Amino acid sequence: MQNLELAQNKLKQYEQENILATLNSLKGKEQEELINQILKIDFQEISELYKNLKVKEENAKCEIAPIESIDKERITDSELKELEEIGLNIIKQNKYAVITLAGGQGTRLKWDGPKGTYKLANGKYIFQILAEKFKAFENKYGTYPYWYIMTSHQNNQATVDFFEEQNYFNLDKNKIKFFKQDELPTLTPDGKMILEDNKIKTASNGNGAIYAALIKEKIIDDMKAKGVEWLYISGVDNIMVNFIDPIFLGLTLKNNMQIASKSVAKAYPEEKVGVFCKKNGKPGIVEYIELTEEMRNDTNKNGELIYGDANIVSHLLNINVIEKITKQKMQYHLEIKKGLYKFEAFVFDGFKAMDNMLVMRVKRENEFAPIKNFEGVDSPKTALEIYEKHLQF
Length: 393
Fold this sequence. Notes:
The chain is of the alpha/beta class.
């Protein structure tokens, strides 16, 4: 009864009367499950997000400045070889790990299951294509990095079961580890939580949840025990991602940076993508709507867009940065889906913990083939066309 009273008081304090009414009407196991959920939710955090989340206003106060990138195509062959050797030395010592952000479902692909389990027209699953990158590296160098896969509460079991059914695509299952990101309640426009099957409706809180999840799920402890020092973070839906990249790692090390990202050149000034920049002197991403028309079209002496390095969710971080990031307050972004408010943080939101970062520009067709939509732009068809034309192993 003590927990029931605690839950009731919590709901009263934060004016969630509709949840309170249902809680009082439930009996037995159903009531117990709802009580436990209520006690785990940080209602104060949700209340603050609802009242104070004004991303546009915050961004309006930001001083936005360009951040320079290094174009991989302009690095000399001799330097590429040097950088590759630096990176390979780290990877071969098992000091490097790959993290795949795979918390989403394949809903937009009209697929009932985790996005990574979607099968493309060539007969391969998305996860299979990613797994083959580890195998290709092993065939060339005799080893491959640890693979950590961030799932969600919604798709974790289905993802694990899928890997079991596929025999981990002939990779060593001991080098693959799954962990779950957190969720936050979704709200109505007037700030009320919603019930679904007598439980508070929640949704994954964005890929920026990775930092807290790495700590909470003790993945950082696991990595440190294995001697991992560098983490490559990328999304599950980019089948051209090059997440075992000795040159990128070597370039980051040579420049004494602790965080780095890959970018691709914006296709044209009005392309609606986030681009790398500095916000109030700290590295981050500026969204298309935050740039003035002049900033979108401004070019450097080479005729290239000053704000032209598009984010492709390919990030490299030193493991020591994670704890520094988790000590700062993460910024959440408001997303409205089907009239409901959902709060998300993004990986790049953590970059403001640092003073600088490295951005390496790569060719779009070599490393970026996203699968977002069922058809049209960024669809399985367009991604597969790029994959089959430009695959390099």
